[in-house]
Every structure is written in structure tokens, then in C-alpha cells.
Amino acid sequence: MREFINYDKSIEILNTIKLNKATTQKKFIIDAIGDVIANDVIADHNSPELPTSGMDGYAIKFDDINNDSIKIIDKNPAGSVVESEVKTGVCIKTFTGSLMPKGSDTLVPIENVEVFEDSIKITKAVPFGFATRAIGENYAKDEVLIKQGTVIGFAEVGVLASLNIAQINVIVNPTVAIASTGSEILDLGEIQTNEAQIRSSNHLTIEALCKTNGANTLQMGIVEDDIHSITNLLETALQKADIVVTTGGVSVGDYDFVQDVIKDKLQAEVLFHGVTIKPGMHILVAVKDGKTIIALPGFAYSSTVCAILYVLPLIYRFRQSNEALPIVKARINEDFPRRMPKTVFTACNVEYKNNEYSINFDGKKKGTSAILTNMLESPALLIQKEDSENIKKGDLVDILLLNQLK
């Protein structure tokens, strides 16, 4: 008799899987978008390195702020260094991004002055140091600007470019091999020859999830339900991938051969087979030669939910990133009683209004675990722990935001 464990225990086990040491590679910063920085990025200079103008205007000594007339002695375009110096009674016209002229401490915007040939009159005073960017205002020398484990996006590219860093060390993403098993399923383009055959989407749904969450993927396609084919699939995949994900063949049916191959043919170490969750209770996780095998149920909704819960966190661990499943609090709009002693993940609609998330179940279909369409539009998963109380309308509940999984 197979022993089922609870959801929290299964995640605890998943997080203790020993992973092979991550490797790094150098990439040009634009090509590294979506990758994870392998080392802290530290500023090697101050930005700005000297006081700089933040606006177009006139650089003055603040002591002259109330003078009736201040003489203009020079212009100071961005990208050049003006030789003239600001002293009492004189100013220099200065532009955005220009170094503040020597002797100046305040910039008066052009709209705050009247110009009379070679002098200005300040019509609206500004405080001391106005529009003057101090040394290190953007960042200071030796400051950690980007922490190890950060996923590179547009802001990181901009900061790296400002530091004159063209290439950066990133963690090499894990490779995930994906396959669907079942003699009744058809791949894209295959012709249906009898009414019992169904179109497979699992292998492509999971590949999309893995790709958009930072993994390289190896699509193994559809594999028939027989010991030899499944053994060949898993042995090949384990040679090429860090994580092997299959769908189907892990339940208790006569043709559920995936579990038999993992346990008997491969002699893999099974970490757990069966979790008190819905959907996906027959999930199997094993390790073999330092590689992880995650065998998911065959129903589309079940396999997708389990891939989110178990495959994505493993990818994040491989990437050594600061990523995590986006679980937040939300307000529920109806009673939701506890129906079974399992951790249940239920598709719902989510919106953000009045400074909080709220969920409802409008239009969501009820039935078997095959209803993948419940994940369309603005979806989330309501998380109801197996030891939870009945949920009441208006309660704050935990949800997993599906659209934030990219």
C-alpha cells in the first residue's frame, strides 16, 4: 500500500534535493536578459562623479538668489568643461547633464528668470542646491548595485551599461526534458484514427512553463505506453537533462508503466509517490545519478498545476535565483467550504482593486482534472490547506497568481 504524504512535506523534500554545482557562462548584457547574475555587481566609481546639473538654467552662488541682476559670463553645454568660474554677482548658463561650473552651488531653472541681454533677474527663488545632482547621487563607489541571484531585466542592463560592463557572468540555466506518455494521445498534426484518441497538450504546456521560467528545454514528444519505450525515453533524457518531466503513467492502472520503469528498471531513488493534494495526488518524484525525475499525472489541469508547484521551484533552485512562486493574499467573494482532507488548488479569477486582490469563480468550470481552460484570462489558484477551516465570504485567502508566471 502506497503511503501518501502531505503537501508541505513534499515541498520540504523537494527543497532538500541535492543539485549539481551550478556552472556559469559569460554573456553580452543584452543576450543575458532573463538570466541570473552569478556575482554581485559593485560600482567602481561614483555617479555622478562631480556635481551635475539636473535642469537647463543658470548656475549661481546661492548668496546671489535675491540680487536684482546677475551677469551672464559664459555657456556650459553638456559634454564639455567650462573654464569660467562662478563668483559673486555672475552666473553661467548651464544645461541638463552639464557639470556644475566651479564656484556654483545652485541652479535656477530658465523659467524662473528674466533675461536682459547679458544678465538675468531671478523672478522665482529656489532653495540652496536646487537642481544640482550631488556626487554619488545615482550610486556610490563600492556600492553593491545588483545582487547575486537577480534576474536580468531592462533596469539591470541599463545599470551594467552605465558601469561600462559589456559582458556578465550568469548561471547556466538547467535543461528540462519533457515527454507525455500514453498510447491514446496524439501529437500535433497526427491524424485521429479512432474516437478513443485524444490530442496531447501536456508536453507543450509544460515546455512553455519551463521556457518562460528560465529553463532550457528538450522536447521528447509523445511516448507509447510500453516498458521498452518508456525506459528508452527516460534513459536518454537522463543523459541530456538536469530535470526529466513526464506526464501520465503514475496512477494505479494496468498501463501506468512510468512508475514501474522509474522504480524497477532505472532503480531510481523515489523521494515520494503520492501527495494529498488535488489535483495531482499521484505525482512521483525520484532522483537518479544526480538528476531529478518528476512524473506528473496525465490530466492536463493536474499536470499543469503540479508542474507549477514542483517543477518551477526546482528550476528556480537550479538558477540560484531570487525567484519564487507568486503567492499573495486575496479577498474571496463567496463561501468556500473544506470538502476533503487534502491541500486543494482551485482555479479562480483574480483582479486588483481597492488596494487588494479579490477572487471569484465566475465562469469557472467544475468537473475532472482535465479542465485546462480554467487557466485562461485572469487566473489564479486558490490554495486551501488540508487542515484549513471552511472559508467564508470576505476572508483573506492565499492565492497563486498564474499570470505572473509569464
Comma- or semicolon-separated keywords:
406 residues, alpha/beta, six-stranded mixed β-sheet, 26 strands
SSE topology:
Elements: H1 7-15, E1 24-28, E2 41-42, E3 52-53, E4 57-60, E5 70-76, E6 90-94, E7 106-109, E8 113-116, E9 119-122, E10 132-133, E11 144-146, H2 154-162, E12 167-171, E13 175-181, E14 185-186, E15 198-199, H3 202-212, E16 216-223, H4 227-240, E17 243-247, H5 258-265, E18 269-273, E19 277-278, E20 284-288, E21 291-296, H6 300-319, E22 327-332, E23 343-353, E24 356-360, E25 379-384, E26 396-401
Parallel strand pairs: 5-6, 13-16, 13-17, 14-15, 17-21, 19-23, 22-24
Antiparallel strand pairs: 1-12, 2-11, 3-10, 4-6, 4-7, 5-9, 8-9, 18-20, 20-21, 22-26, 23-24, 23-25, 25-26
Helix pairs in contact: 3-6, 4-5
Overall structural class, as computed from helix and strand content, comes to: alpha/beta
Number of helices: 6
Cα radius of gyration in angstroms? 31 Å
Assembly type of the chains comes to single chain
Average pLDDT reading:
92
What is the first-to-last residue Cα distance? 39 Å
Identify the strand order in the major beta sheet.
7-4-6-5-9-8
Count of individual beta strands: 26
Proportion of residues in β-strands: 25-35%
Biggest sheet, in brief?
Answer: 6 strands, mixed
Sequence stretches where pLDDT stays below 50 over 5 or more residues? none
Shape: elongated
Give helix % range: 10-25%
